[in-house]
Amino acid sequence: MVERSSSATRSVNKCRGKSVKNPNRCGKISGCMVAKGKKRTFCRKTRTQTRKRKHKRVRSGVTKKQKQKQKQKQKQKQKQKREIKKMIRAMQIDLSLTPSS
Questions:
Q1: 33-91 pLDDT, tens per residue?
Q2: What are the CA-CA distances from residue 47 to residues 13, 27, 50, 84 (Å)?
Q3: What is the pLDDT of residue 75?
Q4: How far, CA to CA in Å, does 16 sit from each of 28, 41, 48?
Q5: Separation CA 101–CA 37 (nearest Å)
Q6: Omega of the bond prior to 99 within 30 degrees of 0, cis?
Q7: Residue 34's beta-bridge partner residues?
């Protein structure tokens, strides 16, 4: 049987296994923080984000859904402007056709 080393299955994490009690090694490492759970306290990375949250945001900080809503609003405004212009033109034509007394 071939034994696998633990480093082959796990990624390297500088915070893993660091002491949280005296002496607190976790607090001294930049990028690590003490996480407090119900059962125990442990050392973890400070800036951990879920993949879903990372990729949801766009550079401008606006989500895809928000961009879609903005585009829809712009289209509606443009449509309203076109309709208003048509109405104004129709009114001008009607005024020019009516005989003035």
A1: 998 888 999 998 887 666 655 555 555 677 788 889 999 999 999 999 999 999 988 88
A2: 13, 14, 10, 52
A3: 95
A4: 13, 12, 14
A5: 88
A6: no
A7: 43
Are 42 and 18 in contact, with CB atoms under 8 Å apart?
no
| Per-residue tokens: 101 | 């007394």
Please list the residues that pair with 24 across neighbouring strands.
none
Rounded CA-CA distance 26/42 in Å is 9
- Give the span between the Cα atoms of 94 and 90, in whole angstroms: 6
**Nearest-angstrom CA–CA distance, 29 and 14:** 8
> Which structure tokens are listed for 86?
């048509």
Pair 31, 45: CB distance under 8 Å: yes
The CA-CA-CA angle for residues 50, 52, 54, to 5°, reads: 70
Whether the CB-CB separation of 29 and 46 falls below 8 Å is answered with no
